[in-house]
Amino acid sequence: MIKVIASDMDGTLLGNDHKVAPETLKAIHEACDAGIRFMIATGRNFKGAMEELKETDIVCDYIVGSGAEVRDQKQQIVSTAPLSMELCEEIYENLKEFPVSIIFSSGDYDYRIGTKKEIEESFLKQIQLFHMDTGQDTDESAVLSSPLYRRIVENTKIISEFQELEESQVSVYKVFLYSNDLEMLEKISKKLEKNKKLAVASSFKTNLEITAVEAQKGPVLKQYIESLGYTMDEVMVLGDSLNDYSMLSMDFGATVAMENAMPQVKTVSKYITKSNEEFGVAYAIYGVLAQIRKENAGWMSEA
């Protein structure tokens, strides 16, 4: 029987407007009322996750930074798996030859290194990604005047060289890259994947996300749920992108890909639900609740 539900956010729990739909929120509450523990498993940092959840009344655990940080239902930090500063420097040195802004993400701020042009391009690309399929205008002038652009700028510290990051003594949970040059991103991915201390994934085809190999959603979720007394077969996980692959490819009780998921993700998942725009998370939750009611009814009749 499913006792824990862990859901990705962007492209999964959230619609294309990056909000939790009332239909999805209702399903989550019904699951919690039935005794199911709800968890978030996202590539966002905690601050970024809370920007979209603060207007909801969801009580949940948080696996953020793709597993680099775990917080309990009281939002207290349980564990962290940051990139060491030595690994950050190694990533930086490997990427210096490529014309792309490097984003070092901590729990509070993003630290961006690059030329003015590279940083502006990364801002624009990040915003355009988060406006995908919403029908909103994504030309440069519209992006620059958007509230999301201002929020990202406010949460960013621009630095000129790696030494400034080193001196800041922040814990870096993830490194992000955004670019339209897919061939370049592929070269970068292959180069970094040679380092077995790193995990390289993506949420979109135009980005890369680099974490410590220990910071992957699947293994971190397994460790956390077992520390709470649950077993893998009691967990349902939902996701849509390659940073969900480690979670969906593991033998949890139910691994559910969204209809809008990347093909590689669908291939390894046991089930496919409706898309994020069709409230696929709610659809999957109601399937679990129906199964619980069926099992309870069977037990009652046998008694």
What does this structure look like?
The protein has helices spanning 9-13, 22-33, 46-53, 85-95, 116-130, 140-144, 147-154, 162-168, 182-192, 217-227, 245-248, 263-268, 280-302, and strands spanning 4-7, 37-41, 61-64, 69-71, 77-80, 102-105, 110-113, 156-159, 174-178, 198-201, 207-212, 235-239, 254-257, 271-272. The protein has 303 residues and is of the alpha/beta class. The chain folds into 2 domains: 2-79 and 214-300, HAD superfamily/HAD-like (Rossmann fold), CATH 3.40.50; 83-210, Hypothetical Protein, Haloacid Dehalogenase-like Hydrolase, Chain: A, domain 2 (2-Layer Sandwich). The strands form 2 sheets. Strands 5-4-3-2-1-12-13-14 form an 8-stranded mixed sheet, with helices on both faces. Strands 8-7-6-9-11-10 form a 6-stranded mixed sheet. Strand 12 (235-239), helix 11 and strand 13 (254-257) form a beta-alpha-beta unit. It is globular and about 65 Å long. Mean pLDDT is 90; it is low at 132-137. It comes from Mediterraneibacter gnavus (strain CC55_001C). It holds the Pfam family Hydrolase_3.
Which parts are unreliable, with pLDDT below 50 for 5 consecutive residues or more? 132-137
Q: What is the global morphology? A: globular
**DSSP helix count?**
13
CATH H level, superfamily name of the largest domain: HAD superfamily/HAD-like
Task: Trace the largest sheet across and list its strands.
Answer: 5-4-3-2-1-12-13-14
SSE order in H/E notation? EHHEHEEEHEEHHHEHEHEEHEHEHEH
Percent range of helical residues: 40-55%
Tell me the radius of gyration.
19 Å
